[in-house]
Amino acid sequence: MTAVRSDTAPLDVAALRADFPILSRTVRDGKPLVYLDSGATSQRPRQVLDAERRFLETSNAAVHRGAHQLAEEATDAYENARAAIAEFVGAIPGELVFTKNATEGINLVAYALSNSATAGPEMARFTLSAGDEVVVTEMEHHANLVPWQQLCQRTGATLRWFGVTDEGRLDLSNLDELVTERTKVVAFTHQSNVLGTVNPVRTLVERANRVGALTVLDACQSVPHAPVNLPALGVDFAVFSGHKMLGPSGVGVLYGRRELLEAMPPFLTGGSMIELVRMEGSTFAPPPQRFEAGVPMTSQAVGLGAAVDYLTAVGMDRIAAHEHTLTEAALAGLGAIPGVRVIGPTDLADRGGAVSFVVDGVHPHDVGQVLDGLGVAVRVGHHCAWPLHRRLGVPASVRASFYLYNDLSDVDVLVSGVREAQRFFGVAS
Amino acid sequence: MTAVRSDTAPLDVAALRADFPILSRTVRDGKPLVYLDSGATSQRPRQVLDAERRFLETSNAAVHRGAHQLAEEATDAYENARAAIAEFVGAIPGELVFTKNATEGINLVAYALSNSATAGPEMARFTLSAGDEVVVTEMEHHANLVPWQQLCQRTGATLRWFGVTDEGRLDLSNLDELVTERTKVVAFTHQSNVLGTVNPVRTLVERANRVGALTVLDACQSVPHAPVNLPALGVDFAVFSGHKMLGPSGVGVLYGRRELLEAMPPFLTGGSMIELVRMEGSTFAPPPQRFEAGVPMTSQAVGLGAAVDYLTAVGMDRIAAHEHTLTEAALAGLGAIPGVRVIGPTDLADRGGAVSFVVDGVHPHDVGQVLDGLGVAVRVGHHCAWPLHRRLGVPASVRASFYLYNDLSDVDVLVSGVREAQRFFGVAS
Amino acid sequence: MYQEIILDHYKNPHGRGLREPYDGESFQVNPTCGDEVTLRVRLAGETIEDVSYEGQGCSISQAATSVLTDLVVGRTVGEATRTMDAFVELMQGRGAVEPDEDVLEDGVAFAGVAKYPARVKCALLGWMAFKDAVNRAGISLPGNGASGSERQGVQS
Amino acid sequence: MYQEIILDHYKNPHGRGLREPYDGESFQVNPTCGDEVTLRVRLAGETIEDVSYEGQGCSISQAATSVLTDLVVGRTVGEATRTMDAFVELMQGRGAVEPDEDVLEDGVAFAGVAKYPARVKCALLGWMAFKDAVNRAGISLPGNGASGSERQGVQS
Ligand SMILES: Cc1ncc(COP(=O)(O)O)c(C=O)c1O
Ligand SMILES: Cc1ncc(COP(=O)(O)O)c(C=O)c1O
């Protein structure tokens, strides 16, 4: 195990960057790459690439299915990764289900709930029907919105949602009217992928607990960027994606309270998740296996295990502090440009490192294009949060998002690039 | 592009093996690894590992979501992989959906069918209800059985199945009684992962077409081992897994006829699969995007693209011929041992390279253990085909499965290892 | 990619605004960025008498729609189809297609956009709306401009 | 791993067969290989008077169940629990646990099996059935032998 840094000494970004091969490439005719799109997907350090390759060159086999030495080694590597990732979020291994991405994790919960309707009388506690309600927020990523719309469509339940204030905070003024005895699920994001807003998990969980609703936390943008202890947050379920936290694509995690995972019907079915199979019907394995049908993303889980080792060695507190510094600089730098408007909180309390903005008179696509020409990779569009953009009265925005390998010079390039876009489109003042 | 060999010149196995780093390792105190478990998962050549790493070190980004150069390159790599894989099975790119494994692909179809009940009147053609029937076979992998049991449970439809003959062939004697006007889906395996049996796709498809039932082909064990043209087979849907064909884990493929994919409701929902999202409801993108929610298994798709390039360069005809030779030798070698009984066809017509057997007086686990001690990796158990084992009157079996990197010496080690197990347990004659 | 011609059309769009009467109207959205256009077509027999539109979008989508009006107004549906096909071919050519200025006029300025796949959809948004609006006016436009596999927007 | 003692028990299992009367019965299956055991327990107060069983399985599962009968018949439920805990600890110890021959008797022969994780389930199959059968006889067996997270079989 790597040594854990819990201090908040500044990161040695230059040393860290040396671990990420892609960061030394150039784009668009020799411009150094300034990667400010980690909110969409992060880059991977050698340590993660090497761990996956080492696994594939020495121990690759189908896990939980074989008795030969490779199968044993592969199963150990896969389960050790689960244990490492569980520890990273304060959970026990049996509470972690590997999925292909966070999106699958949310769908898993939504489908398990609708499946409970036909899965036998003991599943009644999970069943939704007309009159029941699911509550989400207006700032959700589509991944934590559309599956709930679909669950409501399947079951006849009604979707309701928290609004967003002009400052980009959750409007909790009607908390008690929204979350009521009719509420079966409250699903919300820990940290907005657009605004950076960190939501008050405790307040929402307390209210949901009071009315007996399940809570589902979208932790995609929090777990990669700050220390997160999921059991301590008190949520029933949470999801995050490997590719946003230095790990491989193709692997995500669903955390679920043990008691719930044990009681829930399965979602995807097939090999490795069964207990007894007859043509007439089947019974299912205990969790987490019950929710991992088929040959899993084995090497990807191993890679994600290496990613959490890497993050732990750097120190999540230090990463959070580092991103705080970058966010502060970006808010100041962009805020100082006339005609640039940051959407989302401009104070740094309860705010993570995604900075979205619009430039008066220049469409986000065009801002992005000018930045791209300068080597700066940002995201433009609605960032899979279309209703949020509609609420804030903008069709789209430009988003810069930071990670441990960015530094203040990246912020400088971003800020001067935005000025350049204004000049190019003749809107500089 | 690599040159395609369509001749049937014998494989240069030694040269091929040099591409697979794991095959040069030793197990159990220095025994050379004899890997006969490719039916569970295959190993990966350098070319695939390198392609994935190259992608990750140069072009990694979220696909279909960004406008910067990395995002463009990543999207191109991902879509080029889709095109290469589509060509490999004779399809067009728009007919291929990337899933996490074949199991997800089958579940996708099964859930899309049950979702159609609440997805609007134009989906009525996909809806199942009480009185409708789903037909499978007794030789299915759990992945192509349990999802249909669950679909029936969700919809009230009835599951029926073809039996298996003592020789391990599909019993089609009651084809017309089983597949009737009530049948909505006929799902069956192309090649049994236990018996090696290749099923008569044409016969089943013709009957299904006659009654208007959808056909779902489990091509997990055929696409990796022989030339397969899915549209030419006439099936409506087919699935296969990357990890069984030299590609990464965490990526599978669902093939669907364009017209069906375009008409079907979505399964997993979230980012990248939408057309328009409002809090009140959403509409969905055309296929294949409609079925690819969330950030996909990007580098894994790229790796699978490299795998089909590799397979094509070697030549699928030659691979099939090679496995034919190995299967023939294994059937002869094992068949010559008193007390060893092969389950599955012993004639080589319509038979692929999985050889399962039982040894009188020695439990499969114990046979496998002795083989493992000799460096031979085989699979023991029911191989996720429990009903088939029950039908054949054995609780479990030993399975050797071959691929392009195996040669006749591997068969020799297997056969002498089985004799060794008999000696050890005192049942040699 | 930002040719002077494109910026000119962006800043001074031709034919902008929604006008009555019209024979077909289409609303199209680019699902990745939310850009949208509402476009109306007025026909006189086979001839496109007017194209009017409104929407929000980037320089590329706005300019391309402006160029579109220049290219199709006063032409027959058949001529417009051929122009559309040429423009779509140019945009999907990854920079490898040599544009014909006789056919595409100001549209040749978009040759550079074809090298940026993420922006191709922007350039085609107005054309998708045009094709759909003509269809809705009761005339079926053949051509490769908006086959099922390239459908990119939403109609409402 | 195939100690002589294991092979002896495998070839000449102790206490095999299902006998009447009994107080609790359990059916357990190993889902990965289909091996199964039906096991009955007869109690006299706190004392285990008989363990009878039938099933199909590999040498390890068969021998382990045979050893089980030697270890628990004639003992109290409390003693049996301690033995079970020691055996489970040995099996889950990856070869790092030193077995106590006074407690485990012939069971020490399974120390080598602990190095083969895929076979640990085989060695524990009979013990899971035993624990469940005692439970079904109305006596709750504590201990770490079959907590939720290690549940490996099916009960019917
Ligand atoms: C015939 C067959 N079908 C389905 C599967 C399931 O494939 P996967 O586990 O990759 O989803 C397998 C392999 O495990 C198989 O052999
Ligand atoms: C807040 C949030 N939720 C959910 C997701 C979906 O993650 P994935 O696409 O990896 O499933 C993302 C990222 O795309 C996100 O930022």
UniProtKB/TrEMBL annotation, chains A, B:
The keyword Lyase applies. GO terms for biological process: antibiotic biosynthetic process; cysteine metabolic process. Its EC number is 2.8.1.7. SUPFAM superfamilies: PLP-dependent transferases. Its cofactor is pyridoxal 5'-phosphate. Keywords: Antibiotic biosynthesis, Lyase, Pyridoxal phosphate, Transferase. The keyword Translocase does not apply. Residues 34-414 form the Aminotransferase class V domain. It catalyses: (sulfur carrier)-H + L-cysteine = (sulfur carrier)-SH + L-alanine. GO terms for molecular function: cysteine desulfurase activity; lyase activity; pyridoxal phosphate binding. Coiled coil: none annotated. Belongs to the class-V pyridoxal-phosphate-dependent aminotransferase family. Csd subfamily. Catalyzes the removal of elemental sulfur and selenium atoms from L-cysteine, L-cystine, L-selenocysteine, and L-selenocystine to produce L-alanine. This is Cysteine desulfurase. It comes from Amycolatopsis arida.
TrEMBL record, chains C, D:
It comes from Amycolatopsis arida. It comes from the Bacteria. One of its GO terms (molecular function) is iron-sulfur cluster binding. SUPFAM superfamilies: SufE/NifU. This is Nitrogen fixation protein NifU. It holds the Pfam family NifU_N. Coiled coil: none annotated. GO terms for biological process: iron-sulfur cluster assembly. NCBIfam families: SUF_scaf_2 (TIGR01994). Residues 1-122 form the NIF system FeS cluster assembly NifU N-terminal domain.
